[in-house]
Amino acid sequence: MNNKKAFIFDLDGVIVDTAKYHFLAWQKIAQSLNINFTHEDNELLKGVSRVRSLDIILGLGNVEASQEDKDKWLIQKNEDYLSYLVDMDESEVLPGVLKILKLLKEKNQGIALGSASKNARPILEKTGVLSYFDVIVDGNDVTNAKPDPEVFLKAAQLLHIDPKNSIVFEDSVAGIQAANIAEMVSVGIGEETILHEADHIFKDFTQIEPSFIEKLIG
């Protein structure tokens, strides 16, 4: 009996936490424009595109800008963000994640990344987990953002596994909704009050027992 399933992971907030680096890069742009940009303001940018994020920040400071300036700042933001990633290493992998990846590898399951990040590959490489992934689908490969399920459906397709035999690990509401729309099993990583639409919810990967994974494999 072939019980190979597709286990699809989001990147930021699930495998690693690069949100802090996005914040620092945006804050640097904001400061150069004399805009006060706080951690609270940063919440407005969660799950939002780079272009839209810049517009939100400019709105906070009532700053009008030409498209030329905007394009320049967007490039600057990404360069600053990437410069922070240079020092990433294995210690940035969130607690409990490696244990689950190793178990899935041992059980010969399909492992994929399904992320909006356009820097997914270098991040996985720097944190030493790239070799666990059979398939990587990131922001360079898809046109529709979550909650559109495109990123997850593409990952399942590349693994040659039916979406109904796929399990998604996500920390965002849009990601959980995307998994549910694709009729995949959704596993929320984070707060139950926020991710209540998920089929299963854990605070983090340290709470996931091997028996839970084995039950998902069936």
What does this structure look like?
It is an enzyme of class 5 (isomerase). This is Beta-phosphoglucomutase. It catalyses: beta-D-glucose 1-phosphate = beta-D-glucose 6-phosphate. Belongs to the HAD-like hydrolase superfamily. CbbY/CbbZ/Gph/YieH family. InterPro entries: B-phosphoglucomutase_hydrolase, Beta-PGM, Beta-PGM-like, HAD-like_sf, HAD-SF_hydro_IA, HAD_sf, PGP-like_dom2. The chain is α/β, with parallel strands linked by helices. Helices cover 42% and strands 11% of the residues. Strands 3-2-1-4-5-6 form a six-stranded parallel β-sheet, with helices on both faces. α1 (19-32) crosses α4 (67-85). The longest helix has 19 residues, at 67-85. The model has no long low-confidence stretch (mean pLDDT 94).
Give the helix tally: 9
What share of the residues lie within helices?
40-55%
Average pLDDT number = 94
Distance between the termini: 11 Å
What overall form do the CA principal axes indicate? elongated
Q: What's the helix-strand series?
A: EHHHHHEHEHEHEEH
Topology:
Layout: E1 6-9, H1 19-32, H2 39-42, H3 50-60, H4 67-85, H5 97-106, E2 110-114, H6 120-126, E3 135-137, H7 150-158, E4 166-170, H8 173-181, E5 185-189, E6 200-202, H9 210-217
Parallel strand pairs: 1-2, 1-4, 2-3, 4-5, 5-6
